Amino acid sequence: MNHQDLDVWKRSIDIVTAVYKLTENFPESEKFGLTGQIRRCAVSIPSNIAEGCARFSDKETIQFISIAVGSVAELQTQLIISENLQYLDESNKIINELEIIKKMLIKLSKYLKSKEN
């Protein structure tokens, strides 16, 4: 399975771009704090999808998809924190897109598990 062919990977790449733009105006004091954490977390999603697809078994792929799901939840949480700190006006659009990505990842995982049986 080629990760670049997956819609979920493509959408994850778009999230990374949006997150980098969104965090450009965060306070300088957050450069190594929340800004860095949010960006690393966003990058983690498509990176884990890609790494999982490069593995030799569906079981390994499922493990990396699971990590990507965790990164989605982590990023959603960090965006909510950023909004509460008034670093963001509204992060709902990205949070909603992350929810779609999470559902896509769960479906992919379920599909790969069904292939094992």
Describe this structure in words.
This protein has 117 residues and is mainly alpha-helical. The protein has a single domain, classed as 23S rRNA-intervening sequence (de novo design (two linked rop proteins)), CATH 1.20.1440. It has four helices and no strands. It has helices spanning 7-22, 34-53, 58-84, 92-116. α1 (7-22) packs antiparallel against α2 and α1 packs antiparallel against α4. The longest helix is centred in the middle third of the chain and has 27 residues, at 58-84. The two termini are 18 Å apart. The mean pLDDT is 94.
The tally of structural domains comes to: 1
* Oligomeric state of shown chains: single chain
Major sheet description: none
Write the CATH architecture name.
Up-down Bundle
Classification by helices and strands: mainly alpha
Q: What is the mean pLDDT?
A: 94
Instruction: Give the termini separation.
Output: 18 Å
Number of helices: 4
The best one-word shape is: elongated
Looking at CATH, which topology would you report?
Answer: de novo design (two linked rop proteins)
List descriptors.
117 residues, de novo design (two linked rop proteins), 0% strand
Provide the fold topology.
Blueprint (H helix, E strand, L loop, with lengths): L6 H16 L11 H20 L4 H27 L7 H25 L1
Helix pairs in contact: 1-2, 1-4, 2-3, 3-4
How would you briefly describe this protein structure?
This protein has one domain (3-116): de novo design (two linked rop proteins). The chain has helices at 7-22, 34-53, 58-84, 92-116.
